[in-house]
Input
Amino acid sequence: MTNQLEAALLVFVLFTAGIYLCLSRRFLRILFGFLILSNAANVVLIAISGDPTGRGSGTVDADGGALNRIDPLPQALILTAIVIGFAVASYLTVLLYRLYTDRGAASMDTLYADEAPGGAVAKAKEDRL
Amino acid sequence: METRLLLVLLAPFALALLMPWLGARLGARTGWLALLAPLTSFAAVLSIYLLPQDARTLVQWPWIPSLGVTLTFMPDGLALFFGLVVTGVGVLVTFYAANYLDDHYRDHGKFYCYLLLFMGAMLGTVFSSNLLVLFVAWELTGLTSFLLIGFLHDKHESQRGARMALLTTASTGLVLLVGVVLLRVIYGTFELSEIIAANGVPAGTNGLMTAAFLCCFIGIAGKSAQFPFHYWLPNAMAAPTPVSAYLHSATMVKLGVFLTVRMLPVFNGLESWMPVLTVIGFGTFMLGALLALLSQDLKAVLAYTTVAQLGLLIGNYGLFTQGVPVVWDYLHILNHVFYKACLFMVVGIIDHSTGTRDMRKLGGLFRKMPVIGVAALITLAAFAGVAPTTGFLSKELLLESVLNFSETNPGFYGGWPLFAVVTGSVINVVVALGVFQRVFLGPVSPEVEAHYHAPSVGLMLPAIVLAVATLGGGLFAADFGRFTLSFGVAGEHLMKAPDLHLWHGLTPAFLTSMGILVLGVVVYFTLGAARRAKLKIPNTLRFDAWFDHLADAVQLFGKKLNKALGFEQPQVYLFVVLGTIIAVVAGFVVYDWRQVQGMVAQWEALPHGAEGWLRWSMVGVIGVAAVLAAVWTRPIRQLFAVSVIGLGITFYYVLYQAPDLALTQILVESVTLLLVLLVVLRLKREGADHEQLPVQPVQSRFLRLGLGACVGLIMGGGVLFFQQPQTLERAGSFYLDNTLALSKGRNAVNTVVIDFRGWDTMFEIAVLVIAALGCIGLLSRRRPANKPPVQVGASGDLFPVPQDVILRLVAIGGFVPLNLFALHIFFRGHNAPGGGFIAGLITALSFLILVFVIGVHGLRKVLRFNPMILAVSGVLLSFGTALLPMALGLPLLNHLHAYVGGFYAGSPVFFDLGVFCAVVGVTLKIMLPLMKSVHGLPAFGAQEQARFAASNAEPIDLAASPVSAAKKGGAR
Output
């Protein structure tokens, strides 16, 4: 068994839960699923960057010695990914919030319901004008 | 030479960038400053024109050497001629606009910014001699004209006209790109001078050349509104009149004519040159004239006559084929520029003074404004081709060429130009007579009388100048002719021609010209006033309606397809996408089963270790939290579970020897928690978090779970089998080995972020700002109608600020230490875990904690700054630091290292500072308005709302003006 089996299991659980939530109808569940997925993607990156057992962090010695370290590049990529993930997640949050305030919808069913403001019934009424 | 050319090209761009800033301060007076740009460019072009012929040299700057793209500019006669037209009319139009756009209009800064950008793009197009550069500038004119046509963007016809113009000119522009690329395939270069020097078509490429020519011609036809693309020009008249006068008479639509001349030496020898140009060009002339006759709106009349005149100009080039030198083309163009720009300005003045452009309502304006009446009389005379204006000269010369052409070319191709020119000209005479009689003679209608106010002298001046030019050019025909000849390009134009005279005997051309006038007058009076007023364009000739139908059909097709597939909700696509991914991967696994088995066999060979138990237990915690997040149904609990996942992963990063990641993750997790909590609380208050939904069958839950599990298997299996080997990749070890030597920092993760891969970071913070802008947009344009306003309690807040003393003390007392800590983290980042991202998040969090106890307004009272400005200046600081080395001749992002005492103060610190500012600004700008908004308060102050959002009185929504759209089959 490898050291990385636990990482694979973690990725499996996170993706399963994330996708399951993302496929829901309620906005908040979709949002939670999205948050889990963005974390899961980062875990995939760090996991495939190699087993850290017995290695040092990305900070080299004062004389520049860098023996037996982890790979700093994936970490740098994840660092930016976390921050961008935050930006995108906040956009999604605000978007869902706006949908709620505009349409009064907190789920896909309400959003696409025919009677909702901007829904099929309202559209048909507008077209008749 | 180079300085003069730089001055020509850069003056409009440089001033354009200042315009929005000036516009906010000067309002309607911005135009007077904008006038500087065309004046400067005009003077510079003139100074190049006055240089002796051999001093006008090619100027080159490298741009993308690897693609063979150089910024090549060639100030030859053609470029100078069009340069003078663009800048000269530019001066007049800007002057006119400064008088025209009074305080009734908004956004003056934006208007002049677009106008100057357009001018710069025009100059770029006419001067460039690299075909790719020419194409880029060409498309830039299309983009800026889109902005100008749609300037009054709350009007439906502006939206429609702008969309139509952009779609038509941009898509035909793409065909032009195909033509340019084909030329590159044939000649191996984008440089026009080299292509011309190749002198003729390389053997065996005749078919390819014809294809290239046809592609280029489609580009020309799109830009110059030739049949079948002529429909966009009249609809572009929704623009403010100065724009119509500039773009749609004098400059942009002339680009097609310009390109025809530019490409003339390349394509002139082709057999298709003459038929294509003459048939389409002169055909458009007739069609345009006819449509002008049928229109009632003054601007539409002018637009269609412009279409016609452009056809005439392009068709004219078809007469000079197989190396026959072109003659008098500049005279035709200049004639049109003079009278058409003047007529547009006259229409603008009439519109301004009377409030209408409908010919059926106008009348008797000659007595009201005699000066304008005289100007209109002169220019209409030029339009109809009456002596002694430039129009008369132009028509006479054109008839001469056409007559000669029909003598030398028997058959259809010889007779067609003559027939078209005569027919079209007769209609032109009718149109000119009609416009003058109906607008300037007869009684003044009471509506006009009620609205009328006299135009100012400044408004009339440019029109008068152009009218004088029209008359003067005709009176001093010899000088005018010599002036236009002086722009000739050797090898394309006839350089010497006998002097022009208004009267040169009873030539066939003169007789035909007189015949046209007489016939025109006769037709005019036979038609009669009553019948003319009833004319309208038949539906079959309304190409714009056809275009609308086509644009609508695209949308309709999508809708129909959706309906046919049964996917009324876009959510279904997520299932389909995931299912496809799973199917593809499963297919590969089955297909390549042997290799998968091989990978499984390697399992035992992978290294083993003993430290795993800590990580295993973390996985246990996170896994349980993930399952709970999916199983629980109460949002607060779910949020708790999601936070546990995030914090668990923080610890997991620690175990993976990634302290930077752990620090970032824990902070981002906290901010995300706050953000989501705000929305969850709002939904919870209103009971929307557990609204009753129709029960779904159990299978659907299993389907979701199955899809999730399959994706999990794929990703988890990927983690197992696509591992980095024990030895590091080259990139990773390079960064580790060189972080101290090259970047003067010990923390390789940080130096990768801000130094080695600084490009990524630079654009990443730009993405942050974009996300924040998106959030602002979403929060600021809240439509209040659909949701009743939240009932705010006596305290004025939905979530009252807690009055707990201890909490207040902790929050306020923690502010300074937290920020000192952030400072520490910021500076240690280069050598130890930390850096701009992390420090920025700490500072942002310290503010958010503060807001929780003193409220958003409380914070605003203490701190008077706009977080967005901080974010944008952060991005600019980072970009500036990245660009700075270029000024010293070093590559981009080549950081400079310096020590102040023992303290490191190289440029990476400033780069990181930019990141810091961007993170703080973006986080606050997203959080603070949302905090206010979920509290039931408006997200922005009134002043900010005005800046970010469309004003309520003029909704942007297309749905708001459904009347005209619904009539045309529903544009939504």
